Amino acid sequence: MDYPDDPIAKIYPVYLATADVIGELRAMGASGWEVSDDIRLDPSIDYTTFHPDRPLPNFLWLKVVDHAHADDLGLDEIRKLWVSQRVLDTLLRLGMKHAELDGERITPPPHRRQRAPAPSPQ
After folding, report:
1. Confidence label for 101 from pLDDT (cuts 50, 70 and 90)
2. What SS3 class is residue 7?
3. Most buried among 26, 32, 79, 107, by the most CB within 10 A?
4. For the chain, what are the domain ranges?
């Protein structure tokens, strides 16, 4: 993970959300999603380089189970995340900064795969 401050992230083909987001979605009765804690995340090399003393947030697997415009969360025809205005307002209030917004479509910041270190010159 490279974006420690955003409450939502995408690691294709899944979306991750912080426990705060999950709690807010539950509290508002948002529809179109399920949650799982059956994930394992490791910080990327970039993350550990730039944030050596900062653990990853407690992300959970946000399973989007509906289609865009049918519920509060859904996937459109190209599998982009769509959210209702009230969910968008909640994500912004919780600190979403790096996601791309296109109307009600959100593209959370991607997780970058770790790169193998370059071989050292001999």
Report:
1. confident
2. coil
3. 32
4. 8-107
